[in-house]
Amino acid sequence: MMAGERPDREAEMPTNDERIQRAKKNAHENDRHSGCSQGVLLSLQEEFSIGNNEVFKAATVLSGGVARHGETCGALIGALMALGLVVGREKMEDTEAYRESMKPSADLIERFKEELKKQFGFEGELDGTLCKQIHEKIYGRPFDMMDPEDYRAFLDAGGHGDNGCLKVCGVAAQVGAEKILESMAERETDG
Q1: What three-state secondary structure class fits 121?
Q2: Is there a domain that residue 56 lies in?
Q3: What range does the domain containing 131 cover?
Q4: d(C-alpha 9, C-alpha 38), whole Å
């Protein structure tokens, strides 16, 4: 080995930024198959080797603002589920772990809103994390995802295009990966 070269195993270790960008890209691509919550969750599960297929399956019904009802953004829920796999409690009785998991989760939510504003160039603040609120910022109006005509209008507006919900999924995976990496680093220094 020449001076300044790293051993092969170190050269193969991706940087944190590479991991974040890979999770972001994979979530973006995953949502092409519909299912924002699963797309984000899967990208983070694969990147950080967390959870299992049962967790992935459970996220099926959370897309489109929970079963396409426009409630909490499914992409955000997927990121929160992944974070929960890292910081969540393992026993119901562990109320301390429950309380400790709220701070990183709340931070992820705020970062998500800030990053959406930054990457989409929203005017004004994003008032919440409801799917319909995010749609209104991106497309100028909310959609009733349960109504076939309105769902078609969502698709026609670019809902599953690169600058629509696929981009939202990328943002959710990005901030989720950032928070997971921070949480893993904190656990290493604490433990």
Answers
A1: coil
A2: yes
A3: 17-185
A4: 31
Count other Cβ atoms within 10 Å, centred on residue 157.
16
* 11 assigned to some structural domain: no
At 35, is the secondary structure helix, strand, or coil?
coil
Q: Which residues are paired to 72 by β-bridges?
A: 130
Both tokens of 51, joined, read: 């959870």
Q: What is the DSSP string of 3-24?
A: TTPPPHHHHHSPPHHHHHHHHH
- The reply to whether 43 falls in a domain is yes
In a domain, 8, yes or no: no
pLDDT tens-digit series, residues 91-133:
999 999 999 999 999 999 999 999 999 999 998 889 899 999 9
pTM for this predicted structure:
0.91
Contact between 135 and 75 (Cβ < 8 Å)? no
How far apart, in whole angstroms, are the C-alpha atoms of residue 17 and residue 148?
Answer: 40
Q: How many residues does the chain have?
A: 191
Flag whether pLDDT at 3 surpasses 50: no
